[in-house]
Amino acid sequence: MRLPAAPLIPDGDEAREWAERELAGTVYRVAEPTPFDRAARAVGDFFLSLFSGDVPAAFGPWLAVAVLVIVLAAIGVAVAIWGRPRRAARAQAAAALFGDAERRSAADLRRTAEAEAAGGRWEAAIVLRFRALARALSDRTIVPATPGTTVHGFARSAARAFPGETEALARAADVFDDVRYLRRPGTPDAYALVAALDERLAAAPRPQRIPA
After folding, report:
1. CA–CA gap between residue 101 and residue 20 (Å, rounded)
2. Which residue numbers delimit the Protein-glutamine gamma-glutamyltransferase-like C-terminal domain (predicted)?
3. Could you tell me which residues come within 8 angstroms of residue 29 by beta carbon, excluding any fewer than 6 positions away?
4. Which of 25, 36, 177, 208 has the maximal Cβ count within 10 Å?
């Protein structure tokens, strides 16, 4: 009866050679992480270290600079995306008064209106003075002169802020419409009405309650 052969026990060098041949097989090569896997793991470990506080001391200053740059960039993008439409809307509102482009300040409009009145050009003087009135109330954020607002709509809004001037505001709006749209001739009395109203509203204290 033959006894089974004793198992072959390799020496140290031979065992290492067998192990290298085994690990070189296709199954083990497929299981190894790829360079992309290693890079992804390194990036993930880095971000996890940001939240865990386990950041190497050598990266401390550079990390602070990198975070600051990222925050500033995010703020810049937010301003560029949301700030620009708001600035454009404000610029559009400031550039329009009752359907016409108008960028002059209330003071400039008043000076020009006075010059037109001095020359007897009452129609232009009335239009400019009412626009000065509207620009002044809009700049004081009492009555907004938004694009599309009509003269009478503005007068009604201003009357809610200054109830004592309701009749004068309605008459001034009528005078504006007469000379601007109905092409009726302006008069010194009509200009004096609008100018006096503008002066009273400019000198009036800001209402405690601004109507919506």
Report:
1. 84
2. 129-198
3. none
4. 177
